Amino acid sequence: MSSHPFNRQDAESQASARIRPRDAASILLVDRTSSVPRVLMGKRGSAHVFMPNLYVFPGGRRDRGDSRQPFIRDLNPLVLARLTGGDASAAALNRSRGLALAAVRELVEETGLLLGRAENGRKGLSRLHADLASLRYVARAITPPGHVRRFDTRFFLTFTDEAAIDPAGISDSSELHDLRWLDMQDLSSLNMPEITRTILDDVRAQMKCDPSLPFGSDGPFYFCRNGRFYRETI
Is 16 exposed, middle or buried (0-12, 13-18, 19+ CB in 10 A)? Predict the structure, then answer.
């Protein structure tokens, strides 16, 4: 006997609700060399299952090997402490660094911009040596239940001048195209996820208070529980 369509939909909804969020990292790269700060964003392709055709920050899922990647300089101690929630265990430290390293890896893969340096490794492949020292931890958001993919995303931020990045060096990739440096004060017409817009609003508000964004600054944590949305401070 065939199932009623409602039952199939209900089962699919319950299955999506049980999807465990996977660690991910995203990076807000801000160019403040002119009078108006600009942020780098790109458009996800229409073939993507998650957030197709929307403008987002560079970023993606944390890979298992990210925690083992070399780095030139570590995260600021205040940033590392906030990422770990004060847990000084080796596992917590490795996971937190892995998130930052994932953000840097995704940045170079999706935009061609390098935060650190690349060296030739075995078989002639370039190996990234990330520089984590300028990264701020500005937000965290967990994708609500009901989506085909769910991520527990940490949002990092750095400035091009601090990171020694040339804004002119961007190049489109298979992951992100139509890369743009966008006026942070004028993004109302851009097609982007609501959480992306919300985090941009939060960052703008923080930069109004202190344009340098101190490393120990608090940030928002967005999540859904029992059908209700929450905003806490991390």
Answer: middle
Low-confidence ranges of the chain (pLDDT < 50): 1-16
pLDDT for the residue numbered 111: 97
Give 118's strand partners: 128
String of DSSP letters for the chain: -PPPHHHHHHHHHHHHHTPPPEEEEEEEEEE-SSSS-EEEEEEEPTT-SSSTT-EE-SEEEPPGGGGGS-EEEPPPHHHHHHHHTT--SHHHHHHHHHHHHHHHHHHHHHH---SEEEEE-GGG-EEEEEE-TT-EEEEEEEPPTTSSS-EEEEEEEEETTTTT--GGG----SSEEEEEEEETT--TTS---HHHHHHHHHHHHHHHH-TT--TT---EEEEEETTEEEEEE-
pLDDT of residue 123: 53
- Taking residue 188's Cβ as centre, other Cβ atoms within 10 Å add up to 6
The whole-number pLDDT of residue 50 equals 62
Exposure class string for 123-160: b at 16+ Cβ within 10 A, else e:
eeeeebbbbbbbbbbbbbbbbbbeeeebbbbbbbbbbb
- pTM here is 0.89
Q: Are 37 and 181 in contact (CB under 8 A)?
A: no
